[in-house]
Each structure stands twice: as C-alpha cells, then as structure tokens.
Amino acid sequence: MFVDKAKIYVRSGKGGDGHVSFRRELFVPAGGPNGGDGGKGGDVIFVVDKGLNTLSDFRHIRKYAAGDGQPGGKNRCHGSDGEDIVIKVPEGTVIKEAETGLVIADMSGDNDRMVLLKGGRGGKGNQHYATATMQAPKYAQPGQPAKELTLLLELKVIADVGLVGFPNVGKSTFLSRVTNARPKIANYHFTTLNPNLGVVDLDGADGFVIADIPGIIEGASEGVGLGHEFLRHIERTRVLIHIVDAAGVEGRDPIDDIRKIQNELSAYNPELLDRPQVIAANKIDALYEGADDDAITLLKEEFEPEGIRVFPISAVSGAGIRDLLYAVSRMLKETEREPIVFEREYFPEDIEESLPYTVSKSPDEENVYLVEGPRIERMLGYTNLESEKGFDFFQKFMKDNGILDELEALGIQDGDTVRIYYHEFDYYK
After folding, report:
1. Most CB contacts within 10 A, which of 102, 137, 244, 355?
2. More confident call, 180 vs 5
C-alpha cells in the first residue's frame, strides 16, 4: 500500500547531570572538587534516502527517541554523549508540527540532512563551581531536559510534469507508453492508487520526470474520496497535462471534465492554475469517422484562447504523442527550474526562548505574588539558589526578562512574598 502521510513522535536526548565528588587520597584529607560533566543528549536527525519512495515504514514505528547523555563521574570523568537517532525519509517529505500544521522542514532540493531537535547540554560538575570563598561546592548542574515534538510527515512527489484527469481516461496507458513506468491498468475507477513516476527520454531535447496523479473526482479539494492525498502530489510539478477522453467512450464530456478538474485544483491551491498546461485529447483512435475534427475543434475553441494547447493523441497507438512530449519539453525549458520548496514556518530551536510566564497576585493570600511558567521552572532546575553565584544569576534572570518590572506594576512592596513554584522569597527593591 502506498503511504504518503504519517504522524510520529520524536524526542531528543536529555543531557547528563554533572557530578558532585571530591578528591580523596591518602594524606590529602581535604581534596578539591573533581566532579565530571554530564554528556550531551543525542540529536534527532532527518536525512533523505533516495532509495525510499513511500512513508510506509512509519506505519509500524511511530516513536523515535535519541539516547540520553550519561552523568559525569568522579575524578573529572566526562559522561558519554547520547547516541543520535537518524530518521530516513523519501525525497520530497515535508515535516510539519502536528498541532499547528506549520512547516518545519522540506526534505527536498539541497536540504537532504537536518538536525530537527538538538539534545540537551550536559550539566557541569562541581569542579566548575569552586571559588575562593566556596572551595568545596556541593552543587553540580543538572543536564538540560530533552525536547519532544509530534510531527506530521507528508510526502509530496517530486516530478516536472503531472498528469491529471478523471479515472479511465488513459493516464496509466499514456505513462506506460512514454516512460519505463509499469503502472497497473484495468477498467475500474480509481485503479491507480499510487502516484506512479517515470522518466521521459527524448532525442535532441531534455527529458523530464512525469507523474501519473491518481484520478481526481469532484469534491477532491474538500477531501472527498482520496482527494487531499492525491492533490498534494501536484504541488511540486511545473507543467500539467490534462488527459481527457476525447471520444467520450464512457459518455463523458471532455470540456466539462477539464473545467471540473480546474475547479478542484483552484480550490485546493489557486497557484496551480498559474502553471503551464496542455490538453492531451486521448482515444482519437476510438472516434467514429467524421467526429475527429468536431471533438478536437470544440476543445481547441474552448481552451486555446486561454493559452492551453490541445494535442490529439492515442495512448494505445502512439499517434500524436511525439508532438505532445516535445512541446512539454519546450515548456519546461521556458519555466523556472528552481525546485518548489516549501518555506519553513516553525522553528523548534526557538521553543524554549519563547516559553511564556505569568506574574499575578495570589487570590488566597495577601501580599503574596506568584511567578510561573515553563521556562522559569526549567531555570530553577539548573540553578543552585543556595550559592551566591546561583542567586545572582537568578536575580539577573528575573530582571532581564522583565519579571521585576511586572511585579512592581502589580504594586509589590518591600517585605512582600514572591512564590515561584516551591521557592519563596522576600521582596526588597
């Protein structure tokens, strides 16, 4: 089964804690601190594997975690770093933050490797905290916590040309004739469930990659049928070929079919209709004598004034296909060759910096003010408030982040209490 969307959970490694220890040797009763640093947590890394063409592996494994850094040891021993986790994805995979749908990375073009989440920094051992006034610090820095995200992976096929059309108009037959692709072909609606890719080679002209986008139906842009799953593959293409049944074998109106497909493309992404398009009027071999000119003429009169050329072809006999392919090759040469890459909208590395905090009066106690927030809680986790150096760092953090200003704006007075989770402080200006 073709899988082009998956939801997974990823977690970087936690940094190892710093160690508290002191040198103990014979005849050295008061050796100095020698606690080692903790190791760095492992990173979460995404890489492109060009041997992959689906996201099927992610149906079975949905949680990916890097290794944690090991704690430091005595005698200045550094903890080992956590092992990185490398996640392989097909080229064209777009990585999004699951809750917001914002793009974190587009694994295409030059972006074939990305460190998505960095592991936590290892904590410093107590050897780093010795001062002239504190020669035996009993404090070491905890390692930074792990970072985690729930991701939505979407595979958007990378092809120069996209074939679009209703089911049974001959797209698979056309693709099998002009490329080395071998799609399954049968007379059933939605026979093609996979976006098949093939390479078109032309004598004396540039070849190109062509994708048979599975049959589109009315309402596809609203997710009817497998609409969204199919339409996302068209977003990478630079030229569109509309294949229609010019002979009306199944009683379809080719002009109406093209208009309906254009409506679905526009509803999904209006920019799709700005791309160069051609119409392949297929099954001319099935037109009854005398109807050939009529059917093709009606198509040309309808669409060529809009700049969309019409090519009568037969995917079965090969008639007219050569002219169509060389015209498409020229169109590609005239269009921008820059790969379509989705811009980054979400930056995991900024999460910690943007974590909010709240400053408020206690609703139950007089002269008590509450300061809370994830970033503040994390700061308390790696700050030793019992040391002079740690307390100075804490005060600077409160001032630099505007927390003291907010307390004063709320009317705090000397001697009032500031409660930050499990810590309480008397406020003095």
Report:
1. 244
2. 5
